[in-house]
Amino acid sequence: MQAEPTIGFIGAGNMATALIGGLVDRVRDPERVVVFDPDTDKTDRLRKRCCVQIAGDNAQILRSSDVVVIAVKPQVMRDVLLPLRPAMPEAPPLIVSVAAGIRIASIEKWLDRRLGVTRVMPNTPSLVGAGASGLYANDLVSADQRELAETLMQSVGIATWVDDEQQLDTVTGIAGSGPAYFMLFMEAMVEAAAARGLDKDTAHKLVVQTCRGAAELAGHGPESLAQLRINVTSPGGTTERALETMKADGADEIIRNAVYAAADRAEELANTLAEE
Ligand SMILES: NC(=O)c1ccc[n+]([C@@H]2O[C@H](COP(=O)([O-])OP(=O)(O)OC[C@H]3O[C@@H](n4cnc5c(N)ncnc54)[C@H](OP(=O)(O)O)[C@@H]3O)[C@@H](O)[C@H]2O)c1
C-alpha cells in the first residue's frame, strides 16, 4: 500500500494552526505532518496539541514533504522563499500557498523554477472549521495533487476550484473579505435594535443566530437564494417593507460596488507584491 503523503508547513501561525488542527482531527496521521516556524512557542504548542513533527528549518520541510503549505504573511514570502532555492529537491513537492495576493508567477520566480503550485484564498471562518476557500492550480499540478490540496482545505471548510488565477481576486471579493461584510450587517442590525430599546446582548444573540440560520437555510436545499427570500416576503408584510426600503436605498449597488472594490484592491496588492 502506498504511504500517506507527508505534509509540511512553513509557518505555524493562525492559518497553519487551523489547517493542522483540521487535518489531524479528520484525515491525517500526525506523524506525517511536519512544521517549521522560528517561533518555537508556536511549534511547541502544536506538537503538544496535535502530536505533529517539528523541523529544524524550512529546507528540511522542503526536502521531507510531498506537499509544502506556505502559511507565512505575504510581506515575508519573498524572504522565506529565496533562501530555499538550493534546498529544492530534484522532484519538487507540491507547493500550496495560502498567502493572500501572492501570484504563482512570483512563487516560481523566487524559487527560480517552474513547479506545481496551488494557490488558495481561504477566509477567517477557516479558524473555526467553517471556511470557504477558492483554489487555483497551475498546469504542473497532477490530479492526485489537486485532490490532496482540496482535502487539505476541506479540513477547515468548503473548497472550490477556479479555472483562472485572476478569479481568486473575485473569490477575495466575496469569501476572503466577505465575513467582514456580514459582521458590518450584523453590527448595524444590533445597533438598530438597541436604538429601539432592545437589550443589546439579546439583539446580538438574535442577529447572530438569524445570520447562521439564513446561511443554513441557503446551504440546505434546492431552492435558490431569490426563492428563499420570496418565501419569507409576504405581500404587504414587514419583510416586504424592509426590502423595499433597502432597494430604494441602493442596497444591490452598495454590495456590488463593495465586491468590486475588494477584488480590485486584491489585484492591486498582488501587482505590488509581484514587483518585489
Ligand atoms: N488568518 C486568516 O484567516 C487568513 C485568511 C486568508 C489568508 N490568510 C493567509 O495565510 C497566511 C498566514 O496568515 P496567518 O494569519 O496565519 O499569519 P500569522 O499568524 O502571522 O502566521 C504566520 C507565521 O509565519 C511565521 N514565520 C515568519 N517567518 C517565517 C519563516 N521564515 N519560516 C517559517 N515561518 C515564518 C510567523 O512567525 P512570526 O510571527 O514570529 O513572524 C508566524 O508564526 C498569510 O499569507 C495570509 O495572507 C490568512
Description:
There is one protein chain. The protein contains twelve helices and eight strands. It is an alpha/beta fold and 276 residues long. It folds into two domains: 7-168, Rossmann fold (3-Layer(aba) Sandwich), CATH 3.40.50.720; 176-270, ProC C-terminal domain-like fold (Orthogonal Bundle). An eight-stranded mixed β-sheet has the order 3-2-1-4-5-6-7-8, sandwiched between helices. β1, α1 and β2 (33-36) form a beta-alpha-beta unit. The mean pLDDT is 95.
Features:
276 residues; alpha/beta; Rossmann fold; ProC C-terminal domain-like fold; 2 domains; 8-stranded mixed beta sheet; 12 helices; 8 strands; 13% strand; binds NADP nicotinamide-adenine-dinucleotide phosphate
Q: Which small compounds were modeled alongside the protein?
A: NADP nicotinamide-adenine-dinucleotide phosphate
Q: Can you tell me the CATH class of the largest domain?
A: Alpha Beta
- The CATH architecture name of the largest domain reads 3-Layer(aba) Sandwich
SSE order: EHEHEHEHEHEEHEHHHHHH
Q: Runs with pLDDT <50, length 5+?
A: none
CATH 4th-level superfamily of the largest domain: NAD(P)-binding Rossmann-like Domain
Oligomeric state of the chains present here:
single chain
**Total count of strands:** 8
Strand order of the biggest β-sheet: 3-2-1-4-5-6-7-8
What overall form do the CA principal axes indicate?
Answer: elongated
Q: What composes the largest sheet?
A: 8 strands, mixed
